[in-house]
């Protein structure tokens, strides 16, 4: 189904919800067959086999969030979805707040009063529709659906669990965020919640008071997940943004990966600096791979980078490099602790190491074309693919999530993979991300995305970026294959061009991209608004 068709279908469902809201029986969802229990055991529909399902490694999984408002559920949902997408697991978030806003714009505290029968009916319909859409997604080709809602009662969680396991034979994993730190809650409200569409044009003091009242409405009926009452459920409880965890009854590969990820993330404000090494001697010759030292221009960039990082005056900065000499040289003059990571080494080009694109096209035309046809999955003979590189970099990503202020000095393919994680890029786009030499990329993780700033340090360098050619057939000519690249090895005496700048710093105003890679000028608007509140 095309994206446009899917959007039209969603609009149709939302229209139906608006038309039928008044007719909803507020207890209708409680009567669903998923609540049926016989002798305290779950009933699987005909054709479903509980034991068979549990033996499957990649059984589709519903991840259901739980917890009071302002506990970071949507933050966790989006961050988790981005990670699963990056490692190749098809994932989508279904946020009940978005369904609710499509039906009604009224969202003040009285709307969330459990005694407000009309509002309860609307909320229950939104919950049911979002859950049905999530299950439909998994029934097609999805692997993980994240059901982002409060799910604060045992009755609601039992309904979700029974509906998903009995009707569809999916696995269900609950993620509950518990926070009793007033400091964290107040910071979350002020930094994130007040930017929600629910509080557009509402004075801050009034919005804060209303949201705190909303939380009180939820607290009246909040039942935390109980490992005795809900002992048959799989879940993780996260206390105060990672101070403590309780993990219960993990089942399968996906749940294990989710727990591994959630136990590594934190919400402490920090900045990640990312840069390629300075221009190397092999860069000047347009050769890929290898372990050559820096060119004179590359050494100049190392000096400029040290000056830039010193001027930034970053507290507790650490520097990570690969084990290749061009990254080690680039970082050598930076006054900060340094660590070398083998995982940060450039992609292994196998039999093509040290060759120019011209030479690869001449010697291995079939391989050259095959890589252009599917660059993310293509593996160099005797080398690696981008998919292999993502797997190799997963421990680096986990440490980046745990770390505070870090400068990563790495390589073009490695930087592309790291940026794809933070900017949520698709596999087909990842290998064509522009990462120019002699440019610092500043990443600031935000509530629901990542602020990206690109700062060129104005040291000339060659261009190493190659766009995907229009003709990817093996019988193409070299000129068709190489696009703007030279059709012969580069002349080292030719005048270099400046680094190709994707986003340029201009005075105090910096052009940025949001979590979806869209160019923006002010991140504080819609891209940073919170779609939760349900």
TrEMBL record:
<dbReference type="GO" id="GO:0006000">
    <property type="term" value="P:fructose metabolic process"/>
</dbReference>
<dbReference type="Pfam" id="PF01591">
    <property type="entry name" value="6PF2K"/>
</dbReference>
<dbReference type="InterPro" id="IPR027417">
    <property type="entry name" value="P-loop_NTPase"/>
</dbReference>
<feature type="active site" description="Proton donor/acceptor">
    <location>
        <position position="346"/>
    </location>
</feature>
<dbReference type="GO" id="GO:0006003">
    <property type="term" value="P:fructose 2,6-bisphosphate metabolic process"/>
</dbReference>
<dbReference type="GO" id="GO:0005829">
    <property type="term" value="C:cytosol"/>
</dbReference>
<dbReference type="InterPro" id="IPR003094">
    <property type="entry name" value="6Pfruct_kin"/>
</dbReference>
<protein>
    <recommendedName>
        <fullName>6-phosphofructo-2-kinase domain-containing protein</fullName>
    </recommendedName>
</protein>
<feature type="binding site">
    <location>
        <position position="326"/>
    </location>
    <ligand>
        <name>substrate</name>
    </ligand>
</feature>
<feature type="binding site">
    <location>
        <begin position="276"/>
        <end position="283"/>
    </location>
    <ligand>
        <name>substrate</name>
    </ligand>
</feature>
<dbReference type="InterPro" id="IPR001345">
    <property type="entry name" value="PG/BPGM_mutase_AS"/>
</dbReference>
<keyword id="KW-0547">Nucleotide-binding</keyword>
<dbReference type="InterPro" id="IPR013079">
    <property type="entry name" value="6Phosfructo_kin"/>
</dbReference>
<dbReference type="GO" id="GO:0004331">
    <property type="term" value="F:fructose-2,6-bisphosphate 2-phosphatase activity"/>
</dbReference>
<dbReference type="Pfam" id="PF00300">
    <property type="entry name" value="His_Phos_1"/>
</dbReference>
<feature type="domain" description="6-phosphofructo-2-kinase">
    <location>
        <begin position="51"/>
        <end position="269"/>
    </location>
</feature>
<dbReference type="InterPro" id="IPR013078">
    <property type="entry name" value="His_Pase_superF_clade-1"/>
</dbReference>
<comment type="similarity">
    <text>In the C-terminal section; belongs to the phosphoglycerate mutase family.</text>
</comment>
<dbReference type="GO" id="GO:0003873">
    <property type="term" value="F:6-phosphofructo-2-kinase activity"/>
</dbReference>
<dbReference type="InterPro" id="IPR029033">
    <property type="entry name" value="His_PPase_superfam"/>
</dbReference>
<feature type="active site" description="Tele-phosphohistidine intermediate">
    <location>
        <position position="277"/>
    </location>
</feature>
<keyword id="KW-0067">ATP-binding</keyword>
<dbReference type="GO" id="GO:0005524">
    <property type="term" value="F:ATP binding"/>
</dbReference>
